[in-house]
Amino acid sequence: MVIRGLALRQIGKTNARILVAKELAVGVLNGLIWAVIVALIAMLWFDNMDISVLIAAALLINLVCAAFAGAVIPLVLHRLKIDPALAGGVLLTTVTDVIGFWVFLGLAAAYLV
Fold first, then answer.
1. Is pLDDT above 90 for 85?
2. Reported pTM
3. Is the CB of residue 24 less than 8 Å from the CB of residue 67?
4. How far apart are CA 108 and CA 42, in angstroms?
5. What is the pLDDT of residues 17-54, one digit of tens each?
6. For residues 33, 37, 39 and 40, what is the CA-based torsion angle, rounded to 10 degrees?
7. Cβ(36)–Cβ(11) under 8 Å?
8. Is residue 113 over pLDDT 90?
9. How many CB atoms lie within 10 A of CB 70?
10. Residues 73-101: what's their mean pLDDT?
11. Residues 6+ away with beta carbon under 8 Å from 6
12. Which of 26, 35, 90, 111 is buried most deeply by CB count within 10 Å?
């Protein structure tokens, strides 16, 4: 959405912060919904509340970070005069994967050990 908005020149300095805030709100809402759904499935599957909470927390944090990165990375690339359509997808995928692994394994190490 941000890349399309940049291409159509609909995003500028005045509305970039609003867009990032909206993306964060969507990330939080999406994260909460999916965290609850996945936590319930994990609870039924593993019959372990600790694992369910851990997976839900990791999912929520990852989705919020992905929403933030999905809004900010194209804006930063555009400001650096790099085409966000070419580089944004690779960077966003890398960021979400790395954050997802760190958050899940970090929470597991801190909570379950």
1. no
2. 0.87
3. yes
4. 15
5. 888 899 999 999 999 999 999 999 999 999 999 999 99
6. 140
7. no
8. no
9. 21
10. 90
11. 74, 75, 78, 84
12. 35
